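Quick one, tokens below:
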């Protein structure tokens, strides 16, 4: 990959125009894939990704925002990935893995030892990505306990 194709993943305010445009695209995609009432879990508050609590990251190709992801602490040693998204035109190019790697770095900086996440049964690319980077399926947790369309996964970080 040459420099003009290098992806830059960096912390961004969740209320920034770049973040909001990616979140809107993600919400629209998930609502189309999961039209059932109550099937989507969109909530992520700004304070959950504030410094010391988590992070919201945006992947850029040049000055174009092309993907995002967040991490929020659940307790002192556990965090959850949220709002993972790569724009359709940029999928299959390692952008999702770059976002995951950056989120894991944030997790380690926060003292996190275990990361949880939820994705859906109709997201085979996400399931494949998470398995490839070391996540394993776990029973549903938290707000996903009664969600039959959810797949929950976890990864323990090396110290």
């Amino acid at each position: 990959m040459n420099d003009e194709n290098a992806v830059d993943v960096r912390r961004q305010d969740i209320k920034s125009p770049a973040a909001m445009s990616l979140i809107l695209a993600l919400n629209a995609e998930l609502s189309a894939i999961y039209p059932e009432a109550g099937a989507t879990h969109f909530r992520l508050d700004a304070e959950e990704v504030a410094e010391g609590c988590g992070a919201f990251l945006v992947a850029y190709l040049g000055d174009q925002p092309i993907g995002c992801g967040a991490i929020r602490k659940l307790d002192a040693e556990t965090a959850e990935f949220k709002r993972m998204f790569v724009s359709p035109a940029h999928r299959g190019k390692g952008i999702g893995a770059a976002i995951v790697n950056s989120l894991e770095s944030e997790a380690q900086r926060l003292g996190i030892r275990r990361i949880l996440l939820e994705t859906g049964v109709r997201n085979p690319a996400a399931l494949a990505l998470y398995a490839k980077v070391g996540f394993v399926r776990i029973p549903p947790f938290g707000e996903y306990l009664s969600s039959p369309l959810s797949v929950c996964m976890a990864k323990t970080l090396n110290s």
